What we know:
By secondary structure, this protein is mainly alpha-helical. It has one domain (7-59). The protein has three helices and no strands. The chain has helices spanning 10-16, 19-30, 54-59. The mean pLDDT is 88.
Amino acid sequence: MSSGMEGHRFFDLVRWGVASTDINAYLSNEQISRIHLKGAVFTPNKNEYFPIPQTQIDLSAGADGKPMMTQNPGY
């Protein structure tokens, strides 16, 4: 099993399609000894992406005033 919490490996796990499995396995093991991780879970199709800042969505507005960018699902 690869370790999902090595910052630089996160995007490899996402690209390989194993992020959810590996990170949730890591979290379930670590929740035993790290109280601050209690209840933490990796949500597929949400946690692979960052939210787009509202400012950037607002700045993407075309001449009609409608934004051309939309928020990533789940945010």
